[in-house]
Structure formats: C-alpha cells, structure tokens
C-alpha cells in the first residue's frame, strides 16, 4: 500500500509534465503549423465564401429547404438522422446516425416514406430512387450524394431554375469527384458546391 | 472500376504502406526500449517526477507504478472535467455531469475511449486537449510499456527485474507516439481535417437559413486517437464526421495509423527476442484472422440483409457516401481488431453478420493486430496457452522462447485470458436481468440483445466503439461499464506483469531436439486455432442469440 502511494505521487508529477508536453505543447504546436497558408483554410473548416459571406463548409452537408416545395430549385443531400422530418436538414452543430438496425420496423417505415417523398418530388418511379437518397448517413452531415441521386434530381432543378438540362448535367459532372487514382474513395457529388454553381448559373 | 476492385486496391495500398513502415518502426521501437541513453527532455521529466530512470523494478513495483499512474490519471481527468467552467475554451458548456465525468475518466485512462456524451455540447477544447488528448498518449504508452515488460520476461534470465515503468512510459510517449502523431496531424490538416480553436462558425446557407457548424482542434486529437488505438472522437459522429475524416485519403491514413504500431510491434518483439521469425509468425496469425474477418464484414455489408436494407437497395444506413461499403468495412475491421473503437460508420446499423463480425473481432480479445502494446501481450498470452495445450498433448513441460511454462506461468496466462470473457458475460448477463434495460435499447429483438453484448464486449476489451443506439446514461450502465473497463484493463495487465516477473526469474532452457519450434506453420496453426477456439467456446451461445439469430432471420 505504501509502495502504491509512493508510486502514485511519482505518477502525479510525471503526469503533470506529460500533460504540458502532450496536452498543451503538442496540440498548440499542430495548431501553430496549421496557421500556414495552404493549411489554414482547411484548419478553419474549409468554409466557402460567396460575396464575402460564409455559406457553409465544403465538407458539411446541410439539406436546403425550398421556400415553395412545388418549385424546389435545390439538389438535396442524403437524409440526416438528426432531423425531425424524413428528409429535412440536419444540425451541423452536432452529429450522429440513426443507429437503427435493418430489421427495425421504424427504419423500414422511414425508408418507405423517404422513397415515396423522393419519387414524388422528382416525379419518377419509386424503383429508381437510389439507396443513398433514403438512408441516413453516419454523421448526419454527409456532404455528398452518389452520381445516380444527382442524375435523378437534374430534370427538376433544370425545370425550376430555368437553366438548360445539359448545362445542369455539365455542372453535376464538374462537381463529381471520382475515385482518386481510380481507387481511393467513392464517386461523390458535393451538394453544397453544386447548388452554389447552379445558383450562379441561374443568375 | 468496380467498387470491389477499388476496395481491394485500397486494402492492397494499406498493406503495402504497413509493409514499408514495418521494419523501420519495428526496429526503432526495439532500440527505444533497449538503449541505455536518455534524451535531455526525458531527463527533465525524470527530474521533475523525482524518479530514478536507471533503477530496475521488480514486477510488483512495476505494477504499482502502472496502477499508481493510472489512478492519479483517473482522478485528474475527472477533476479537469468537473472544473471545466474555470478553464479557457469552455464555451459555457459548464461542468461535465458527474456520471459522465466518472465514466469518461475511466474510459480514457483504460484506453477505451467510450463516449457516453455529445462532445460538441459537453466537452470544451481545454478538456479535450489537456484532459483527453493526454490520456490518448499515455494510456497507449502504458499498454506499450506492459508489452515490453513481458518481452523482457522472455529475454532476461535469472533476474527479478523487468525494467523501469517510468522510462518505458516516457520513451513510448516521447520517442514513438509524439513524433508520429505530430507528423500525422499535420498531414491530416493538409488533407482537409479541421484544427480550429473556435467553437464553431456561423454560416448563411444558400437557401437563406442560418446555421452554425461546430469546429474543434480535431487533427491533433485525431492523429493520436488512431495511432494510440484510443478512439474517442472530438465530434459525436467520430471518424464519420466530415471534419474529422473528410475524404478517401484521410480514411486510409486513419486506418493506417490504427494498424501501424500494433503490426510493427511484432517486428520489435522478434528483434528483442533475437529471432525475427518469432515475430513474423505472430504477425501471420494476426494477418490471416484480420483478412478473414474483413472478408466476412465486407461481404455481409455488400449484400443487403434485413428488410430496411433490402427496401433501400443497399446497406447504406449509417454509412458515408465518400467511404462507401469498402471504406467502411476496412475501417470497422481495423477499429475492432484493435482496441481503437473509432468509427467511420455506425456499427449498430450493420447487418447481423457484419455487426456480428465487428463484435467477434473484439471477443477474440482484440489481437488482429490488437491495440498498442495490448495486442502484443494478448497474442503472447495466447501463445503461452497454445504451448501449454501442446504440452498436454505430448506430455512434456511446455516451453516458449526458452522459458518453461510451469504452473505459475500458466496460471497467470489463464487469468489474463479469462478476465475479459468473465467480465463481458457477467456484465451483459446482469444487464439483461434488469427490468429497465429494454427501455435503454434502440432496436427490438435479437439486435437489441446485440446492443447489450456489444456494449460489454467493447468496454471489457477497452475498445470503445458501440452499437450506439443503446442509451447508457443511466447510473447502472455508467457504473457497470466503467467497472468492466477497469477489470478488462487491469486484471490482464497485472497477470501479464506477474508472468513477466516469473519468466525473467527463470534460467534459459537450451533448445533440444524435443523442443517444439515456434516459428513454423505448425505453431501458427496452433496459435490461430487456440485464439478462435477459445472465443468460439466462450461466446457462441451469446452470439447465437444476438447477431447469428439476426443474420439467419
């Protein structure tokens, strides 16, 4: 017991020194390096500015809400488990998934609702709605959708914004990142950047 | 390119990178823990700590140092959380609630890093850095120290001294973890990970609505979180959060960091015991089980199972588009085959077989390739058990690495091996008897049982991932899971140090024609068989009621 107390006292002193080293100098050192040009934009959250105004982070997907649902000009993100509505926006001040299992009837109902809502919004056959459109992401902030879900939304966005469909399609391709070197990551369309590009194109 | 081919190439690139790092890192660690020279900064630590770095410790003293250090770590981390409002960068998040602070203190000191809190709302940056990041380093260094002490048991003869805990702790931190973490953290920032001291940034979304995006000093913590096989995220969604893990490259880097030290430690081991093939054989067993489990999880997730996944058309619930199935399966297999527990996808939403696979990885005792240090000592314990079983079969006193495995050695190994299953099954069993437990579950049926089993498997193996639908904020869960973490961590550590002491005291037995070689395929098969058999015999009944029932439904 005496041994343990003696070792604990030494432990406390060693821990305090290691705290200075790994808890203060290390993170602040990384922070200081991250101030370098080329790193600082990433370090501060890869925020996109339009006309001097922060409009979001390129890594964070927040589903846009149409003022008039009948005339919806936006490309939509994947569903967020943090949202009250089946397809509503998540809250980027927090994060998380639904944690529901594939045999959970709540999840089955939710996915059925989402398929229905997306199919109606896009005016397509429910069988055409891809999986990423109706499943909540792990973070609730997934910035990307798959190319198929983007394609599905092109006709509606073209119709509502008045931008020709070919032009919209070209913008989708422009904002699709394939697999780097052909194999790293998954093909993904960045929804925020795409929406900003469409917004700019529609004037 | 098909998703499968791309995934295979990602796994191939990962293995290549591990192979490149294997020799330099493995040899570096062998030098770090055997040289007599101290660095200047280390001498300063010893001076302030008033410890004699050149004194060699008896195993009991070594164990007291581990326990003493861990005990003050728990107390200090608890206090830092409770006193949050007095600290800078607290963003008015207030003192961390007592139950959460207690659970978190134990969880980070035991290298579990279970999160029963919402970091973005509860933990300020000072608590994250001065409290949690520190334990990310030192809890990993403790695991490393204990593993090295066990190796010394095999390499030394006729002594009752197994090294100096303070030296092992400080060197592991200063010479292994700090430099690697620093480089990796900067690399992660360059690849897009956030490193901000702000609490968030206000934005006006394109649709005109206002929002606030949470920011944090993520990169510095992310690097050591993976490298030290810790796993506690600075954001709630952990490595699924796009600011912690923004793309396919950061995903691969993070998986690499999880695996690199445990894998390279087999080289360190081989180098220290003077026969590198002794290390390769351990690595081959780890590698085969790792690959088999990756195949199971990946296959299961690519073949939708269960009504929700079938209806959606793919198992994408709880997965991120940029990682897809392959990137999620690779991460899930790495994080549960080690004691990491970081997640880039929600294991709770995995299929029965896929989620069962992640659970089985932990129930193997996490040795594919296991946590920093803990993986090596866990697999060595199984090697001792395997040699003991072989000895029983041929009727000889078993030996391993020139040391006899007598009653004392086998008893220590058996305690180290059995602690985890006992804690898991007693904990999960007791939770099942509790009338309030069903209310804490997020999913009905067999999957609900899996949530409980996963929670106790994760806590007892110091993993920290979860079938996160389960609500563990009740006192029952906070306390019992906290106890599981303590027992799951320190019973094996004490048994391992006791084993190290009794091995070091022995003289070396010369190798004879009757010695069973431990570098060939026969030994590898026995070791792999023992790992699988022990887990199977212990856990099949529980697994049958949870993930297996779900997979077959």
Short description:
Helix content of chain A is 45%, strand content 8%. Chain A is mostly helical and 203 residues long. Chain A folds into two domains: 39 residues; 155 residues, no CATH class.
**What is the count of DSSP helices of chain A, taking H or I runs of 4+ residues?**
6
Radius of gyration of chain A equals 23 Å
Could you name the ranges of chain A where pLDDT drops below 50 across 5 or more consecutive residues?
A: none
Oligomer: heterodimer
Computed Rg of chain B: 23 Å
- The average pLDDT value of chain A, as a whole number, equals 96
Q: What string gives the helices and strands of chain B in order?
A: HHHHHHHEEHHHHHHHEEHHHHH
Largest sheet of chain B: 2 strands, antiparallel
Structurally, how many domains make up the residues of chain B? 1
**SS summary, helix count of chain B:** 19
Helix content of chain B: 55-70%
Q: Please tally the β strands of chain B and state the result.
A: 4
The chain-level structural class of chain B is: mainly alpha
| Terminal CA distance of chain B | 33 Å
Number of strands of chain A: 5
